[in-house]
Amino acid sequence: MNEIKDVTFFGGGQNDRTTQEYAETILIGKFLAEKGYTVSSGGYFGLMEAVSKGAQEAGGETIGCLCDDVHKTSIGNDYLKYRFRNKTICSRLETLTEDTELFVVQKGSVGTLAEIMLVINIVTLSKSTDIKMFVLGSLWKKVLLDIFNELGVYYDFIIFCDDYNDFEIKFNTLM
Fold first, then answer.
1. pLDDT single digits (tens) 73-87
2. Phi, psi of 87 (to 5 degrees)
3. Which H or E run includes 6?
């Protein structure tokens, strides 16, 4: 029997489809689906759409964790196989992080930062050595390292990647 493999993707919902991040995030979705992962995300647009599109194009399964606090009537992006609706942002975050051991993070804003910090807190409290978080882009590396160094936060489970190519190499090496 095959083990179900899940990955949660965090990234911005406002990103333009013409950006480098959008194109790279499609590749991330394809790559993860080809590795046998079911890809979960917030389910909306921007980079959440891109990762879902890539996973779907590679024949993978996609899950969108939608939320009334974000948008009460949206059914999410067109590339979702499954949709779960949460009433609050907190319940949405719980759904996205519960029992997940692999996270991939792309460019985003304060919502993405909150998601990253929640996973860091989960790792800190659980002392789990099974969780891995791949974080792409120079923005997050600078912001997070400043926070970690200032607060003395443990972050050995975070793998910083410059771009998609770096992500693919590090993923294949570590996973």
1. 788 899 999 999 999
2. -75, -40
3. strand 5-10
